Amino acid sequence: MGDLIAAAILLIVAVLFYVASLGLPPPPPALPDVLGTAIFPQVLAGLIAMLAVGLAAQRLLRMRREAIERQDLLSLIREHHLVFKSLLLFFLFLLLLKPFGFLISATVFLIAGQWLLSPRQWGYLPTIIAVSVGSVLVVYFFFQKFLFVFLPEGTLF
Fold it and tell me: Distance of alpha carbon 21 from its chain centroid, rounded?
């Protein structure tokens, strides 16, 4: 089941990647034989789509051969609840990135992620906070001072 979900997500990403590449500038009219800047992302999108279809086909054939007993969605979520909670937390991080910026969003994401995946004992909380704040500050200063890549500042703060 997980392979089919991954294949569907990859197929959606490939389509979005291809659609985004359509906005790239075409080759100059003086050079009609040049492929242009959009060719590389379009080829990658095609390869991702073909691999996603292959992954889905492989999984469907395996399911047909093995006669796997069906699982309903609720039992799948119960079985893999940490994966779904982590994905939800990641998407929440992405939503909070623009209004709150990298420092606040990444710190909250790391604290929540470590709390989610660790044994929930209050004695671990100071360590979780220290590791999260330290990691975010190291990443932030490394990107700012050494790579000169400016991370999102946030619109609210």
Answer: 19
